[in-house]
Amino acid sequence: MKLAVLPGDGIGKEIVAQAVKVLDVLKKDGASIEMEYANIGGAGYDAEGDPLPETTLKLSKAADAVLLGAVGGPQYDKLDRPLRPERGLLRIRKELNLFANLRPALLYPELAAASSLKPEVVAGLDIMIVRELTGDVYFGQPRGIEIRNGERVGFNTMIYSESEVRRVAHVAFGIAMKRGKRLCSVEKANVLECSELWRDVVAEVAKEYPEVELSTLYVDNAAMQLVKNPKQFDVIVTGNIFGDILSDQASMLSGSIGMLPSASLDANNKGMYEPIHGSAPDIAGRDIANPLATILSVAMMYRYTFADAVTADRIEAAVKKVIAQGYRTGDIWTEGCTKVSCTGMGDAVVAAM
Ligand code: IPM
Ligand code: MG
Q1: Would the pTM of this model clear 0.90, i.e. be above it?
Q2: Distance from the CA of 247 to the center of ligand 2, in angstroms?
Q3: 195 with 328, same domain?
Q4: What are the start-end ranges of the E strands in the chain?
């Protein structure tokens, strides 16, 4: 299996190094994994003048899967928009056609105290958010900032085609079939035409999945329900911008954004795997970041791209074990637990494997 490894910026390098240690264990046990590193984000700009260098894109296209750390940093905020790290991330998603972004929000029982919600509200939480990843206002044209009537205006276009909605809806229904068979489609159809189309197309696709119970929520209500009674959800499917926001919100239910992995898949389950958090420049280089989201992203890679549930379960079990053993990075630490560094957490997972 060929893996493109793109550590990126900030804590990206530190957390990816821990995930690579997990891959090294699998290699030692006989898995054939070839890893090749490349630059993305600010690292791509610094080394090659482009947040998604041509070589990185080529390598990623040729690979079976991509492991990504994080991109971004304050030193890049003043660059021209196309040169900014985030643009590299958006471009690779688009270029690889990774339209289905799976973001599970799962609470490990031992971390209930680290959640900002009451333990009884989040205990047993297990939600899968399916976020559309290559459309919406993120990519819609026209977009820009220009002068109209003597003042600056900024504008973006929220747009979805039927086929874009249909393909992500199929992914979401498929996942719901393998889980609790309940799917909630989130949009803003009371205001937006784009959402009205989304709702219609999801309802059409639903006819092919009679066993799945489909519900719909407006995004404002969904945001409220997520903190009021998050356990009502099984699978959520939503567009790019709503999914971006709701998945950050859902991460807090699980104790820390440092716990949440993600998979971004194309139509053939080729994927890019990354934690949902960012590059955290404020803590970069201090070896204190939580590597578990990245390690769990490797588990997702095995589950979805390599269709190897045994290995995925093995990695996830190791993470469960270190949490049960009381190892915590700073973001999930509570009284009585053992505080470990990013490296320390990686070592603990390796030992548990
Ligand atoms: C995410 C991030 C990205 C996004 C940023 C870094 C462009 O917030 O993956 O959720 O908005 O998609
Ligand atoms: Mg986000």
Answers
A1: yes
A2: 7
A3: no
A4: 2-8, 34-37, 65-70, 100-106, 126-132, 144-148, 151-155, 182-187, 213-218, 235-238, 263-265, 271-273, 327-328, 338-339
